[in-house]
Amino acid sequence: MADLFDAGLARAWMLRTAAAVTRERDRLTELDAAIGDGDHGANLQRGFTAVVSALDSADGPSTPGAVLVTAGTTLISSVGGASGPLYGSALRALGKALATPTAGPDADAERMLAALGAARDALQRLGGAVAGDKTMVDVWIPAVAGFGFAVEGGATLAGAAQSAASAAEAAAKDTIPLQAHKGRASYLGSRSIGHQDPGATSSGLLFRSLAEVLTD
Ligand code: ADP
Ligand code: MG
């Protein structure tokens, strides 16, 4: 179990997320077909395949901050849908927050909490969604809060990430009864009720993947 989030773990997180997106691609597509345009699985698979290629070279980024900035930039440039710029901005903000000049490159649980908070804030700034709008923000808010409660309680990096992942998965399910107020699903009005939000679901995969690589 890791005490510090380093470049190898950042890379492993992105690779694990890419594998999860590939595995769950059809489910993400079905969820988006119900309340959007059915491209969320394809969008994320294209994006994370490009991320894996960008991180694959031997002279790839050597700090966790640089790995996540590269991943975010790659998502922004390779995904056409709303989710590319949203995830891309979140990962870029996370990476930039880790690259503070006053501390070393590797992050403990406290610094990871601050960086995840910066990612959530970037996501909200770009998309303008608040809690309850039935978007990925509905997962990021409780996931980062879950990470924070665990850190306050003295949890390890892995323990905090496990709390975040559990909160994220529960919150993704909790989008089912909500009516969408942002993104394509909002065009459906009350007909968006009764379906799980695709971006909330893929955010659950992202947080679960983080917990897995930190626990290995
Ligand atoms: P598009 O909607 O352009 O087809 P995707 O299907 O890839 O893009 O992603 C849809 C997901 O993006 C939604 O399920 C939702 O979680 C998220 N999303 C859309 N608009 C916003 C927004 N303004 N703020 C936060 N998340 C959003
Ligand atoms: Mg879509």
CATH architecture verdict: Alpha Horseshoe
List the ligand species.
adenosine-5'-diphosphate, magnesium ion
Percent range for helical residues?
Answer: 55-70%
- Beta-strand content estimate: under 5%
**Structural class from helices and strands?**
mainly alpha
**CATH homologous superfamily (4th level) name:** DhaL domain
Number of DSSP strands? 0
Note the run of SSEs as H and E.
Answer: HHHHHHHHH
Poorly predicted ranges (pLDDT <50, ≥5 residues)?
A: none
- Global outline: globular
Q: Any idea of the CATH class?
A: Mainly Alpha
Short synopsis of the structure:
The protein has nine helices and no strands. It has 216 residues and is mostly helical. Helix 6 (109-127) runs antiparallel to helix 7 (137-152) and helix 8 (157-173) runs antiparallel to helix 9 (198-215).
Key descriptive features of the protein:
216 residues, mainly alpha, 9 helices, binds adenosine-5'-diphosphate
Structure write-up:
The N and C termini lie close together (6 Å). Helix 5 (83-98) runs antiparallel to helix 6 and helix 8 (157-173) packs antiparallel against helix 9 (198-215). The chain has one domain (7-215): Alpha Horseshoe (Serine Threonine Protein Phosphatase 5, Tetratricopeptide repeat). The longest helix has 19 residues, at 109-127. It is 68% helix and 0% strand. It is built from nine helices and no strands. The protein has 216 residues and is mostly helical. The structure holds adenosine-5'-diphosphate (ADP) and magnesium ion.
Secondary-structure map:
Blueprint: H1 7-23, H2 25-35, H3 40-56, H4 64-78, H5 83-98, H6 109-127, H7 137-152, H8 157-173, H9 198-215
Helix pairs in contact: 1-3, 1-4, 1-9, 2-3, 2-9, 3-4, 4-5, 5-6, 6-7, 7-8, 7-9, 8-9
Bound molecules: adenosine-5'-diphosphate and magnesium ion (MG).
Magnesium ion (MG) is lined by residues 32, 36-37, 39-40, 81, 184.
